[in-house]
Write a structure and sequence with these properties.
The protein has 18 helices and two strands. By secondary structure, it is mostly helical. The protein has a two-stranded antiparallel sheet.
Length: 420
């Protein structure tokens, strides 16, 4: 009996946890470290997903905007999408802020920890400050769109694709039809390639998670356990309660659980890859083929959301900054916490394309409130697993936005007539 893809991925996750904890970093097979085998398999799969991101994002946005432009409603759809992104990110930050102030994971009678130099963290946050918020907007308009695509600057690529799709819809005659047919063909081919790559998803997930478990194990939380639980509780509340309420009362979905079922493959892929961009092809396929959302909506909402809508990341930034302040005994009044909320909301929009994105964003917040950026090194013990969790929340929020906007656009059969 053939198992559904999400069950195959779930089994791969369990096997990866067992194999990774058994082998550690030293065990070998035929003279080759198991860790090297895990890393090779995981990297191969992740590279395959990243390979399709640029052409898929461009084709999806250009065809989506082109169709919207010819049918009308571009401004309306854009306003709805951006309003949803800002609102859900703000709600996520407030959930995290309330929980970290209630639980107070960093408050203790012990002396503040001594910060040791960490080369990786120092390199990630070197020269970063509040001025980096401006860089988010500068990256929106790339000087060279080809270089932006090559360097993974998805925000600039999205902006160019939005412009191209919009003005493509403004021209008339055979030129528009030729361009529309070309980009629609590219999109269809990229979706077929994505479907083929996803057949190997269980193997890729196994390699990625097994390598992570082999290197970090499960018992390195130490004094960060309460911080870890605070973040998990906040993410869980936003994922289970807030998103379900939005589906039910904003989207008018009578049974929100159907959407959780529909997005299962994308959620497991996001959890294992820790990459919203790499999960984008899976999210597009799940929404269109399992949830019944039209390509007109998904091709606009999801690529944009994969870059600018980061509910889980914004929540984590806020909790981490307040936790570090508590740990060092620095009191934060509500004015300072409001500053943290604003910076977390702003930085979560555009830093997703930067390596160690959350570390950079948190460093901006710490510098703004007068805390040492080097304190981020204390979070590295639990950052990998929390990164997996917050990425799943990020892509699920994108998918909920697509459902809500599709329903508001009159797509009444979303999540009603699909068989998973």
């Amino acid at each position: 009996m053939k198992l559904a893809l999400h069950w195959q991925i779930l089994i791969a996750l369990l096997l990866a946890a067992v194999m990774g904890s058994w082998s550690g970093t030293e065990a070998t097979v035929f003279g080759i470290h198991w860790l090297a085998v895990y890393t090779f398999i995981g990297t191969l799969f992740l590279n395959a997903l990243k390979m399709v991101v640029v052409p898929l994002v461009m084709a999806a946005i250009i065809t989506g905007i082109g169709n919207i432009g010819t049918q009308g409603g571009f401004g309306r759809l854009g306003l709805k999408t951006l309003s949803y992104y800002v609102a859900t990110s703000f709600i996520a930050i407030m959930v995290g802020l309330l929980l970290v102030n209630w639980i107070q994971p960093g408050v203790s009678d012990q002396a503040p920890p001594v910060i040791e130099s960490n080369a990786a963290v120092a390199q990630a946050v070197a020269g970063k400050g509040v001025g980096d918020v401006v860089e988010v907007f500068l990256r929106m308009i790339p000087a060279n769109v080809v270089a932006a695509a090559a360097n993974g600057q998805i925000l600039g690529l999205i902006f160019f694709s939005l412009l191209f799709g919009y003005f493509m819809a403004q021209i008339t005659g055979p030129g528009r039809d030729a361009l529309m047919n070309f980009w629609q063909g590219v999109f269809d081919v990229m979706m077929l390639i994505t479907a083929w790559i996803m057949k190997f998803a269980p193997l890729g997930v196994f390699g990625l998670v097994a390598a992570s478990v082999a290197k970090t194990g499960f018992d390195q939380f130490g004094n960060l356990a309460l911080f870890f639980m605070t973040v998990v509780l906040a993410l869980a509340f936003h994922f289970i309660v807030v998103m379900a309420l939005i589906l039910r009362f904003v989207g008018g979905v009578k049974n929100p659980w159907r959407h959780y079922q529909a997005m299962a493959p994308a959620l497991l892929t996001a959890f294992s890859t820790s990459s919203s961009s790499a999960t984008l092809p899976v999210s597009l396929r799940a929404l269109e083929h399992r949830a019944g959302v039209s390509n007109r909506v998904t091709s606009f909402v999801l690529p944009l959301g994969a870059t600018v809508n980061m509910d889980g990341t914004a929540l984590y930034e806020c909790v981490a900054a307040v936790f570090i302040a508590q740990l060092f005994g620095v009191p934060l009044d509500w004015g300072t916490q409001l500053l943290i909320v604003v910076i977390a909301l702003t930085t979560s929009i555009g830093v997703a394309g930067i390596p160690s994105a959350s570390l950079v964003a948190i460093s901006i917040i710490l510098v703004a409130v007068g805390l040492p950026a080097e304190a981020i090194g204390l979070l590295l013990v639990v950052d990998r697993l929390l990164d997996m969790l917050r990425t799943a929340v990020n892509i699920f929020s994108d998918s909920v936005g697509a459902v809500v906007i599709a329903r508001s656009e009159g797509e009444k059969d979303v999540l009603t007539n699909r068989i998973f």
